[in-house]
């Protein structure tokens, strides 16, 4: 994989780990870093040797938001022409399971990045929030939309208006976070979950993800029609034959991703 300036990447046991690495500024997301993150995730999404992608931070932060120094002097026309959110839109097109392992601050754009993943495992010490209101702006990479769809309008407005940070425990109670673990076990527990997913038939995971994401946007009837087509499609896979044969023969299945 290409050499990156602001992230570090590795693959273990068919699990790709992308680590945000700009610890001096709490992994503040400058534009190059976002480009690097998106291109690494897309490369792993196309890589047959990878089944699950883990995104994590380093030092005291997952990411403390967009790089304020970089954007402080921006104007609307510059932002329109930069069209930087086109890159963020590509995160929603990643097909493989993505797990955010949130070690510390996940604020602003950093929270949006975690919310762009499918599952979130958080260290007990992690803190989430949208502090944009405190610096005269608001979320721009999906925060108002994703948070509202997850926790509802009333609670979302309170967090977005006050800009206060929520603990991992609060985020878990709100249904934002899947698991809260001791900080020293964060990566181990995330990898355990990733390995569990990596053992499942990848095409099932892929089409389940697609169908669940449709549930967020589609009315129930249309969503169910979509689900049905994906269900039918899985009967074209070897993994369906293997999974059902293994059940009948009372043995463990071996899934190939075909
Ligand atoms: N941008 C640039 N630098 C940052 C950022 C940031 N977002 N966050 C922290 N840093 C830097 C600090 O300036 C400091 O640098 P230096 O050592 O050179 O002074 C270093 O990181 C360490 O930070 P602190 O000394 O402030 O550490 P504390 O433990 O005292 O505080 C906090 C930690 C509470 C996280 C604090 O740093 C903070 O409030 N940071 C800013 C959080 C914030 O407002 N985030 C939202 C930014 S706006 C945004 O994300 C909009 C999203 C829009 C789309 C996304 C596009 C990428």
TrEMBL record:
Domain of life per record: Bacteria
Protein name: Enoyl-CoA hydratase PaaF
Keyword list, A-Z: Lyase
SUPFAM superfamilies: ClpP/crotonase
Organism, scientific name: Parageobacillus caldoxylosilyticus NBRC 107762
InterPro entries for this protein: ClpP/crotonase-like_dom_sf (IPR029045), Enoyl-CoA_hyd/isom_CS (IPR018376), Enoyl-CoA_hydra/iso (IPR001753), Enoyl-CoA_hydra_C (IPR014748)
PROSITE patterns: ENOYL_COA_HYDRATASE
Record Gene3D superfamilies: 2-enoyl-CoA Hydratase, Chain A, domain 1 (3.90.226.10), Lyase 2-enoyl-coa Hydratase, Chain A, domain 2 (1.10.12.10)
Protein family: Belongs to the enoyl-CoA hydratase/isomerase family.
GO molecular function: hydro-lyase activity
One GO BP: fatty acid beta-oxidation
PANTHER family per record: ENOYL-COA HYDRATASE, MITOCHONDRIAL (PTHR11941:SF54), ENOYL-COA HYDRATASE-RELATED (PTHR11941)
């Amino acid at each position: 994989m290409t050499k990156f300036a602001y992230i570090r990447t590795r693959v273990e046991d068919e699990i790709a780990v992308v680590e945000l690495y700009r610890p001096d500024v709490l992994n503040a997301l400058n534009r190059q870093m976002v480009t690097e993150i998106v291109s690494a995730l897309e490369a792993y999404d196309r890589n047959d040797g990878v089944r699950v992608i883990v995104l994590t931070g380093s030092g005291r932060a997952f990411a403390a938001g967009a790089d304020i120094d970089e954007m402080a002097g921006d104007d609307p026309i510059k932002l329109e022409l930069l069209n930087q959110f086109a890159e963020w839109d590509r995160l929603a097109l990643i097909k493989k399971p993505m797990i955010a392992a949130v070690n510390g601050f996940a604020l602003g754009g950093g929270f949006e990045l975690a919310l762009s993943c499918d599952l979130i495992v958080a260290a007990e010490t992690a803190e989430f929030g949208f502090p944009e209101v405190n610096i005269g702006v608001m979320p721009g990479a999906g925060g108002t939309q994703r948070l509202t769809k997850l926790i509802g309008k009333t609670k979302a407005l309170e967090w977005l208006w006050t800009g206060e940070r929520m603990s991992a425990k609060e985020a878990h109670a709100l249904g934002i976070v899947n698991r809260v673990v001791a900080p020293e076990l964060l990566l181990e527990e995330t990898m355990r979950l990733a390995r569990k997913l990596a053992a499942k038939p990848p095409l099932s995971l892929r089409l389940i993800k697609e169908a669940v994401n449709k549930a967020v946007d589609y009315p129930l009837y249309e969503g169910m029609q979509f689900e049905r087509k994906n269900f039918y499609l899985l009967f074209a896979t070897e993994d369906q034959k293997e999974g059902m044969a293994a059940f009948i023969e009372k043995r463990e299945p071996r899934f190939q991703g075909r």
